[in-house]
Amino acid sequence: MFVPLMYHLVDARIDHPMSVPEDSFRRQLDWLGDNGIPVLTPDRALAAAEPEHTRQAPSPGVLLTFDDGYLNTVTTVRPLLDERGLSAVMAVCGSYLDPATLPDHIPHASQEFASAGDVRDWLAAGHAIAGHSYTHPRLTGLPREELEAEIDLDLRAIESATGHRPATFCYPFGKSDQAVREVVGRFYRHAFVTDGGSWPHPAHPLAMRRLQVRPEWDVDAFGTEVVRALAACVEPEDANRSTNVRSS
User: Fold this and answer.
1) Is the C-alpha dihedral spanning 27, 30, 31, 34 positive or negative?
2) CATH code that applies to domain 2-241
């Protein structure tokens, strides 16, 4: 299978647990290439999470994901990916695509987000997008009606702004429970958690675990964590049998 790597910002100027320095990110991409670890296209990676493709799964690799739809993902991350011929997934909050709908209070390290035009350019360059909720609340604490609205409005806003309907979702704060997954599953084929869940597997497409890349990791620590996660995700069924799809 594959290991989804979770990033948010790539910016050395922002000291935050969700902001990886640009030089570190560059070294991480080079380490993956130097060590022969494929960076899978989103389509190829997620095909491995489809039941009918289990016997045609790619060699173990990684999928690059970037949460929150920051402008930084377009201005800093995309050039580094494009120059290496790599593609990634950007998770987008629908209300962030237009300044007129941007919430007054948002829980992020940066307040600069990609516009609808930026996201269209990202897609045109061969990258992918995912839903991330309309206003980025903790979905596990919402009443059912509000939960459904967060998912539905997000998807509608993304599709209206970009002309593209994503099939993948990233839970805000990486958190989900059975009720949240049930609603998300009505709109999306795949969804990513942060803690808990299982490494990507066709049996658990709505609770696929990611490895959060941390800013304090040097390239050796990054390599150690990636190798450890790759070993876990290719273990035969044992690694996915205890799916751990609790609220995380």
Assistant:
1) negative
2) 3.20.20.370
